[in-house]
Design goal:
Elements lengths: L1 E3 L2 H8 L4 E7 L5 H18 L3 E7 L19 H10 L4 E3 L3 H4 L18 H4 L3 H16 L3 E5 L3 H13 L5 E5 L19 H6 L2 H14 L5 H14 L3 E9 L12 E10 L2 E10 L1
Parallel strand pairs: 1-4, 2-3, 2-5, 3-4, 5-6
Antiparallel strand pairs: 7-8, 8-9
Length: 283
């Protein structure tokens, strides 16, 4: 496995690769990331056999953090991450520093219009502008044939899928199911912030979503009441919900009569840690 730190090194290393699978990350890798790497390997092997190349980027992107968010304390574990990538069969780790990714002020950005201002975008203004901009830059640097993202950040998947389609980028997007612990908690690098007591409570976020899904499948269409009940249930347990909402999978707008492909999304704080989760439901 090769570890490269500059765009020039990356392009030289990838110049002759027949098929490139790409998994962008901010590091602090966990089994969910490793599953994305496995999916990328399977897909490039289908395309190019043993000639495929898997690239993982590790970069904590300042542009997607708000001024009062956890950019400074976000876990940075490059040596351990590289060992996990090596064990997972990754071919290239691209680990640039900030001056390599942003050698000058980033005055050209990607603006995912309406979708960046709802849900996560309403709570974290500018977040998806930062995500879309860095992913477009990484796509230009890596030039992958296949890119794999996890569905845990469902809104991010929609933002990036739309970007690829509308800008006609030559990248096949694969969206992977969320990897969970045995108790249902979605795996996340931020789970490491949880105390033991908070970790024991954390699966209740997923439980609240599952209860909504059960109600939807039973025929309940009082969306606002279902959302309010879930928020109240979590609040009583000490959570501080930002939102629990039922939306259409296609565009994350509120459902209308006849919509059947829905997703239940949530973001809430337990202690000092903010967790997100979602469940798709087809009616």
């Amino acid at each position: 496995m090769d570890i490269v730190h500059t765009v020039a090194e990356l392009r030289a290393r990838l110049k002759k690769e027949a098929c490139i699978g790409f998994v962008p990350t901010m590091g602090s890798l966990h089994p969910g990331h490793l599953e994305l790497m496995r999916i990328a390997r399977d897909q490039v092997d289908k395309i190019a056999g043993a000639n495929g190349c898997i690239v993982v980027s590790i970069f904590v992107n300042r542009l997607q953090f708000g001024p009062n968010e956890d950019f400074g304390k976000y876990p940075r574990t490059l040596a351990d991450d590289c060992e996990k990538c090596r064990a997972a069969g990754v071919d290239v780790v691209f680990a640039p520093d900030e001056s390599e990714m942003y050698p000058e002020p980033q005055t050209y950005v990607v603006e995912p219009l309406e979708i960046q201002h709802i849900l996560e975008g309403a709570v974290r203004p500018g977040h998806y502008r930062g995500v879309a901009t860095v992913v477009l830059k990484l796509f230009n640097m890596v030039q992958p044939h296949v890119a794999v993202f996890g569905k845990k950040d469902y809104q991010q998947c929609r933002v990036l899928d739309n970007m690829v389609r509308q800008l006609n980028l030559p990248v096949e997007m694969l969206l992977a199911e969320t990897v969970r612990a045995d108790d249902g908690l979605a795996l996340s690098s931020r789970n490491g912030y949880l105390t033991a007591t908070e970790r024991a409570e954390a699966p209740q976020l997923n439980a609240a979503l599952r209860e909504i899904v059960v109600e939807l499948r039973s025929g309940n269409r009082d969306y606002m009441a279902l959302e309010a009940k879930a928020q109240a249930t979590l609040s009583v347990r000490g959570w501080r919900p930002d939102y629990i909402t039922i939306r259409r999978q296609l565009d994350l707008l509120p459902p209308i009569v006849g919509d059947r492909a829905l997703v239940v999304l949530a973001a809430a704080r337990i202690g000092a840690t903010r967790l997100i989760d979602n469940l798709e439901v087809s009616l």
